[in-house]
Amino acid sequence: MPNLKSAKKRMRQNIVRHDRNVQVRTRIKTARRSMMEALAAQDAEAGSEALRTYSSVLDKAAKAGVITKNTAIRRKTNAANNLRKLA
Predict the structure, then answer these.
(1) What residues in the chain have per-residue pLDDT under 70?
(2) Residue (of 46, 31, 53, 57) closest to 83 by Cα position
(3) Prediction pTM value
(4) Exposure pattern of 60-75 as b/e (b: 16+ CB <10 Å)?
């Protein structure tokens, strides 16, 4: 346990940030799962809608600093390429 006041505050902040990061990562995984399900079902229309949602979630996560900007770009590109292969 921390002894200093600033260390106690830092510990509280880390707990709050950890919870927020877990929520964002869960949102990313859910969006990715819906994207993959649409691709597996060979549904281009649902896939494009899922791609839009997935891209939005990734951009928001990158903006919040949960994932890096390049990671978000790479994941969006791979998802778009997979959708393009379907069409």
Answers:
(1) none
(2) 46
(3) 0.88
(4) ebbeeebbeeeebeeb
